[in-house]
């Protein structure tokens, strides 16, 4: 294999739907052996899909902290942002993984950097009712009172999820309960 991302006549960085490479797909699914094999075959670790996301973003979105550690060890840029300005921390928060958030904190990533819409990782975690990610971000010092461009705070997003009427299925009831717990964490942290 050479540094060009080719093994014999196989392009290990071939593009599929949405510009995804095999490494991005392996990272998102947490296939660590596949990720290792692709890295050994010189897959380019910081290739971007059509939205500007990398394999590290895909691993964070998929809640795959072990795969993220592999990619970081292989030289992935922990400070990358996609075309919307969303950081790897944003993907980790949106996916809800406290372990991914902690890994990025250890790598020195700014856990409060907003995307182009003004949403911070904490906005993403609160909006998705991801209690563990909200807690990890708050413990890492992410400001709980930050506002997006329309003035929405993470607390408002968590509260908005609680107040939505409608479905009483178990999944929706659990989501409202998670939103309430997120709201309480944010209030304890000074939101």
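Sequence proposed for the structure above (191 residues):
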């Amino acid at each position: 294999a050479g540094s060009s991302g080719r093994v014999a006549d196989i392009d290990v960085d071939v593009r599929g739907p949405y510009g995804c490479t095999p490494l991005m797909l392996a990272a998102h699914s947490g296939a660590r052996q596949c990720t290792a094999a692709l890295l050994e075959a010189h897959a380019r670790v910081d290739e971007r899909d059509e939205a500007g996301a990398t394999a590290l973003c895909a691993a964070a979105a998929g809640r795959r902290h072990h795969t993220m550690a592999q990619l970081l060890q292989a030289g992935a840029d922990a400070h990358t942002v996609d075309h919307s300005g969303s950081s790897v921390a944003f993907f980790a928060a949106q996916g809800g993984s406290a372990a991914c958030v902690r890994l990025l904190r250890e790598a020195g990533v700014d856990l409060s950097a907003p995307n182009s819409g003004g949403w911070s990782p904490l906005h993403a975690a609160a909006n998705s009712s991801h209690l563990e990610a909200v807690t990890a971000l708050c413990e890492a010092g992410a400001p709980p009172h930050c506002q997006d461009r329309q003035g929405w705070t993470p607390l408002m997003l968590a509260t908005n999820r609680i107040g939505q009427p409608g479905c009483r299925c178990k999944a929706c009831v659990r989501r409202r309960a998670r939103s309430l717990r997120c709201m309480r964490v944010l209030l304890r942290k000074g939101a």
